[in-house]
Amino acid sequence: MRLSTTVTLAACLLAALPAAAQKPEEPAKNAPDSIEKKVATEIAANWATAPVEEVAKSKNMKVSVGGRSIGYTATAGTLTIRDANGKPTASIFYTAYTAPSSNGKRRPVTFLYNGGPGSASLWLRMGSFAPIHVRTTDPTSVAPAPFDVGPNADTLIGSTDMVFIDAPGAGYSRPLGDTKPSTFYGVDQDVDAFAKAITRYIAKNKRWGDPKYIFGESYGTTRSGALAYKLEDEGVALNGVILLSSIMNYGIRQSGFDTIHIGYLPSYAATAWYHNRVADKPADLASFVEEARAFANGPYAAALLKGQDITPEEEDSIARQLSRFTGLSVDYLKRANLRVDLGRFRKELLRDQRATVGRFDSRYMGIDDDAAGEEPEYDASSTGITGLYVSSFQDYLTRELGYETELTYRGSARDGGDFKWDWSHRAPDGRTQNVADVTADLSAAMRINPHLRVLSLNGYYDMATPFFSTERDLKHMMLAPNLRQNLQFRYYPAGHMVYLNPDALHTMRVDLERFYAEGAR
């Protein structure tokens, strides 16, 4: 019976039920209550819910990489995670791409996820290294459907199996039974859920003896720092941690601290260089960025540290140097006390063109209704691609893989309502941080497992997680000299989602193939 028919029928019964049909000893007012409960029970039974029993839908496919045809299996499915007593608490949705070994050796498996917090992982899944992806070119808004989706020549399936995981409450991942969504909404709660999902996948697919990697983007790197330590602590030794567009320390990046301005400066410089706002523009971006690093760490940091004690002469000197790197006027920089917030920079850089620059990718340009405003009205680097990713993934999932569910795919757990994130974090030393800094966790994991290698991937035009702040965070892990070689950095002419730039995607794929090959040795 259709749900609408059931509800209509119940309404008719409530209106027409004669008093004589009731038992004499039962008050008439109880009859409607009884029927309402029955209707409520039937409505609940028809709600779309995630499955407790794990499901999987697989399809064998092929892709060409470097002139070599690789056969692989694509799987969309769920993993059921449980509490300490074995009670199912959440159904975690994933898509996996696995291939047979070509040399008789065990294949690595990499677990990938986006950030948010609370984001689904369709961005990495459809944009980065899966065998099928969306194809983007120039940093401009993507036209509506039909979209350019097809084989990915820069997939990593030749080097590693890949498992893309949606966070609890996002994508098709859902709490089960009476488990509240808030159970998973926090730094440590989220890490616990991902540790259980990864462990479950490893056990279910008998991958205990295979090399294991985790790959997080944005807040996913925050997750990775703490997750690396938790997995090590629970006996799941990792071979590598890959950090894309990182934010490891939320405390130091809060507004009100001068460190945030120091961290942003090289990204401002790269953006000004890209938009031709640099006088006597150098030919090489990397060398110009290196100059900005030196200025930020040296004269600029020292000047900010002085606060109001800075002399007029020093303020003028710093403003002139700052103007060279940022493309902003000396007068504007002085009026801003040498401290330009991100929103102001994005609005001011191209104000004379009535244009703004993107936050996730400052190559993107937007047009505001109010050219005299204080900050951009929207982020052109976000709105320009959302429809492409959401629509193409759901089309791929249903038409190509044949995965069907009555659940609504959520881009974020925030879409489910009642979303409040617990930012506190219990560090490896047992102390509770009010705002998470997971560099301590990653440092501890690298000391416990001296074979653990970390690769930091960064976009020069990423204004959401500026690369210089990432460097400063990771270089404050105070690694022993013999472990410092296990930490590597790579940079690309792209934004937060490096893979939006096809040239950068190719270079990043080559860098990652080298990283996996080195791990195999």
From TrEMBL:
UniProt keywords, alphabetically: Carboxypeptidase, Hydrolase, Protease, Signal
Pfam families: Peptidase_S10
Gene Ontology terms describing biological process: proteolysis
Highest taxon of source: Bacteria
Entry keyword annotation includes Cell membrane: no
Signal peptide range: 1-21
Tagged with keyword Protease: yes
InterPro entries: AB_hydrolase_fold, Peptidase_S10
GO molecular-function term, one example from the UniProt record: serine-type carboxypeptidase activity
Protein name as catalogued: Serine carboxypeptidase
